[in-house]
Amino acid sequence: MNRTTLSLIAGTTALAAVTAFAAFDTPAASGVSAPRAAAQLPVARTSLLCPAPSISDVAETSYTSFTPVTKGTTDSGKARLQPAVGQSADTTGGSQKDQKGKSTKKTADQPVLTPKAPGTPATGDTSGADAPALVGTAEGKFAPGWTVQETTEVAVGTGRGLQGVNCTAGDTEFWFPGASTAPGRTDYVHLTNPDDSAAVVDIELYGKDGAIKSPLGEDLTVKPHASEPILLSTLTDEHQTDLTVHVSVRSGRVGAAVQALDDKAGGDWLAAAADPAGSLVLPGIPKDATDVRLVAFTPRDDDADLKVRLASPDGLITPAGNETVHVKSGMTTAVDLGDVTRGEAGSLVLTPTDRTVPVVAALRVVRGKGSNQETAFIPATVPVGTRATAADNSAKGTTLALTAPTATATVKVTASAGSEGGTAVTKTYTIKSGTTQNIDAPTPSGLKGTYALTVESVSGGPVYASRMLAATEAGVPGFTIQTLPDDRAMVAVPKTDEDVSVVQN
């Protein structure tokens, strides 16, 4: 049997094209037999992009790479995470420590880390303001479900606290509700190009009164294998407390994330929100959150009216005074929810009051009070689906939140082996309909180092998840939150008389 390799520039887009071909190219037209039902195959190649971690000289950044064990993969494969080679000379370095603790300088072709076997995390470190953006590729057994977490500790200054972001695949469109150009905020859009040709990008800004004219955000060029941080305040003179940022790619593809830094309230990464949809779930609001702010936007011509409910440990409840929210077309809407969780686990569930109008949304979450505040963000996300993973967990300071907004669900949670030793442990949990549970997540037996948490759907309705990392220093409750969307490890491929390997770049 011949083996045909199908190379996908954007995995799901190309796969859709293959599926459409199978559907519309009839046996009479092609002279071959009709394709059989689609098969689920593990991806054979994937890529991830990590933004430059910090502008602070005192920043310390760790990277954790993890690939879950996936049935049906080959026995071979490799993965690398290395600096974006197209960056300027002053940003291709980033110091790291060797095994003797001495500071070294990274070069563009030197990987920050080399992943171990699937099922075991691998770690690497950089430090300082010159730490670069990273481009990673994984093949064979390392590709399905490959996850990389970037975690930065900043001791003092703007954005001080804990900042974390999942490295993401390249794409052509991103929505970021929750950015800001207000005094005291320093927000950057980081654009990273993984390809051999330049990418051309537009950045659109939407404030409380609608679109903000910004010619400087048009036709931005990101060089091949390079990364560009764009300071939002250079695109407009307007001071906007709440902004929605829309990144669209005219040519090529990029990875994108917003780094939101506050002079007084810390900061974190704002990951892209899920695509516009009529119903949204924003999982894992910390139970000790002192202030929660919802930011929403609809790109459609019609206004959106949404029911606001909190999935608590006991079921869905409506926050008093915030039963609904009206989102005007093309305008960013913000609602202060205060300490909406009131000491309990919670997730925000938004649904249409009547007709469905697609919306994007994110939460700005604050823990602590006064000068000891810290900030993180929770964008609306898609369900865990078949499987999702959060890397870089510790025995203390990790909180895994699971919510089942529409139907009771059962999930399996696996704590991987530790990066420096330990044995994987798996537990099963049932999440009741309409509730959020901060579960007592398992930890590897004999844990040494960091570990990964993998959530797998077993039965029931959709489950949404997030993971919070917390580390309090000098009285400041540093924390960061990452959502757990489906890892897209498996792809549906039409069955034919030939074997098809799937590649996701």
Model description:
Residues 1-32 and 87-106 have low confidence and may be disordered. The strands form ten sheets. Strands 1, 2, 4, 8, 39 and 40 form a six-stranded mixed β-sheet that branches. Strands 11, 13, 14, 15 and 17 form a five-stranded antiparallel β-sheet that branches. Strands 20, 22, 23, 24 and 26 form a five-stranded antiparallel β-sheet that branches. The chain has 505 residues and is mainly beta. It starts with a strand and ends with a strand. The chain contains two helices and 40 strands.
Structural class: mainly beta
What's the count of strands?
40
How large a portion of the residues is in β-strands, by DSSP E? over 45%
Helical content, roughly? under 10%
Keywords:
505 residues, mainly beta, five-stranded antiparallel β-sheet, 2 helices, 51% strand, globular, disordered N terminus
Quick overview:
The protein is 4% helix and 51% strand.
